[in-house]
Specification:
The protein is of the alpha+beta class. 32% of the residues lie in helices and 13% in strands. The chain is built from 4 helices and 6 strands. The protein has a two-stranded antiparallel ribbon with strand order 1-2. Strands 3-4 form a two-stranded antiparallel ribbon. The longest helix has 14 residues.
């Protein structure tokens, strides 16, 4: 969960542009009487998907410096995937150190919030 989600919600509902959940946050666990930091990594893409879900967003944008998710990224003949469902994406392999976390986050978001009739992703 995102500890500060209610503050983020109040600010967004008031029309404030909130920059948050960008990675590098402090991972914590609940202990008697409060929170304590732990050694862990907070994935910014999964955090963005969780925040979008909790806030009731109807869209999730994961920005990157490539055109989009591609088949065989970096290899001859690779192509941008323009229309796909989460199950189709999950059937493919995407490197953990590259597009994998973004694909996982996008799939989770769509699987958790989307109505069956709109579960297809379409890229520009």
């Amino acid at each position: 969960r995102i500890v500060e989600v209610e503050i983020i919600r109040l600010l967004t509902e008031a029309g404030v542009l909130v920059v948050c959940a960008g990675g590098g946050g402090v991972p914590v666990v609940e202990v008697a009487g409060g929170l304590t930091g732990v050694e862990a990594v907070i994935d910014k893409d999964l955090t963005a998907a969780l925040l979008a879900e909790v806030l009731g967003a109807d869209a999730l944008l994961l920005l990157t410096d490539v055109t989009g998710v591609e088949t065989d990224f970096g290899r001859p003949g690779s192509e941008v995937i323009r229309h796909v469902t989460p199950s189709d994406l999950r059937a493919r392999a995407f490197p953990a150190g590259s597009m994998g976390p973004k694909v996982d986050a996008a799939c989770r978001f769509v699987e958790r919030i989307a109505d069956e009739s709109v579960r297809a992703y379409s890229a520009g």
